[in-house]
Write a structure and sequence with these properties.
Helices cover about 50% and strands about 10% of the residues. The chain is of the alpha/beta class. Bound molecules: FE(4)-NI(1)-S(5) CLUSTER with Oxygen.
Amino acid sequence: MQFKENRPEDLTEDKLSQAALNKANQDGLETAWDRLLAQQPQCGFGQTGVCCNRCSMGPCQADPFEEGPRRGVCGADADLIVARNLLADITAGAASHSDHGREVLETFHKMAQNDSPGYKITDSAKLKRLAEIYNIDSADKPDLEVAAELAEKMLDEFGTRSQSLSFTARAPEATLKLWEEAGISPRSIDRDIVEAMHRTHMGVGASAANMLLHGLRTALGDGWGGSMLATELGDVMFGTPEINESNINLAVIEEDMVNIIVHGHNSILSEMILKATAEEELKQQARDAGAKGINIVGLCCTGNEILLRQGIPMAGNMLDQELALATGAVEATVIDYQCIFPTLVESADCYHTEIITTSSKSKIPGATHLEFHPETALETARQIIRRAIANYPERNPDRVSLPGEATPVTAGFSVEAILQALGGSPEPLLEAIKEGQIKGAVGIVGCNNPKIKQDKGHLILARELIKNDILLVETGCAAVASGKAGLLQPEASELAGPGLRPVLESLNLPPILHMGSCVDCSRILVLLGALAKELGVGIHQLPVAGAAPEWYSQKAVTIGSYFVASGVYTVLGPPPKIFGSQQVVNLLSSELQEIVGASFAVEPDPQKAAELIINHIADKRKALGI
Ligand code: BF8
């Protein structure tokens, strides 16, 4: 990409986002693209991971090209500095997902004690299935009693009393054995995170390989622990997703409605906003203010969660958060945490939009802060909606611009929903894979990154893989990219290859199954575990792969790490900050193959990334003799 000027048609694929970016430029709203332009050229030491700013003997740089000093003041060379930085990134991602998971669990725990009136058990059957994994006898017990026992056992998995994570029982034997042999079986969600930060301190970890193996263990604790808890307990409280229909793109923001964007990650907030919105009194207040009603739309992963579970429309993915404001028709953007630009209040200043923060962890100067607690969540949600309604008359019609039509999507693909669509068992999918109609399956996950034209990396890769008879599952901003482009509709099966297309058409499925938010990447792990067990192999033997063509966040680094540690070959688009260390590059791109049966690849060109994945799947099929 040339960083000379920011022209909307060069920066984002979606036509509505282009129009909104034009409007943002006219209105003087600064975007991430403007800030990226202002940062050019970005620091080469930072980009290759050899800059260390950990202690006050530094900051130091280890020059990988031997022109400058080869070691930091403490003696760390480029390999160690890169490994320390990468471990810190993996840990930040694991901490983010797992702290989110802990909040879901704490809410669930309070619900079980009748201490959070807005929350209840919606999927009792799932509660019982989870209880079984945790060796809790649920027969003849009231649901709340089962929930209380389950919550206690899950809380232990965050602390030091646990030596293993119960959900790893969902992984096949062969995969568990690889973890055991490598010494990377996750022990406890918080413990491995804390130990990782300990290891990054000067004078602790001195072996790059040893540090990174702990990174894999920490990441596994996220995927098979913190994230999985967030997903599963969310399903128990708010309902396990079923296949549904909704809409995606900026046109879901409606002209004559009180528009409230829920942005961030945790459904314990967004679900309560939805619940309050259904109350007649608030609907009447909206009508009294001159609107037709209240329109809740999602952004980023909290949007994905309520799209999946409740069919709520989605305004866009990460880089749409500023563009949504540029419609001039948003009464409030309500946030919890993660992937939220700290500039949102300034951006909203161009319009009447109120930015409302809800978490003590994520406050923005100038925002309205209405703190969310499980005990009072529903009342806080009502307060938020009342503020948005009161803001509706402040909207300036001259600043409103809502072009275009929303794109229909089919979503709601929990593992349960996928199995149901297949007739109750993974057998038909495995048969289609064995017969070669479906060559394999790929999870495309992760973010937008302004260094890449928004959604382009996702879409090129997705279209190419579908064409080659590969079934896709997607989460996070990747899934939203596909939604905006019309790929989450059964009609998009016409883009599939000659083997995949009839399978999709017979089941009336889209070629890409939207499996939810980034913590819902844990659903992909559950599915992989079930398929591998059914075939009697390790996950690393399956004809599958992962990809993150536009990743930006530390959470995405962690997801990539637990995919690879679980045995899934994973191709990254934007290069991670590791190229200052040949040792780290070798470890991640080849040596891990011997340890966990999978490795990373980096390929910024999505067309070439597709080739890598297609070849990988062909190799795996050959090895399985299919
Ligand atoms: O957790 S895909 S930009 S919104 S980090 Fe963020 Fe990346 Fe989007 Fe969701 Ni995930």
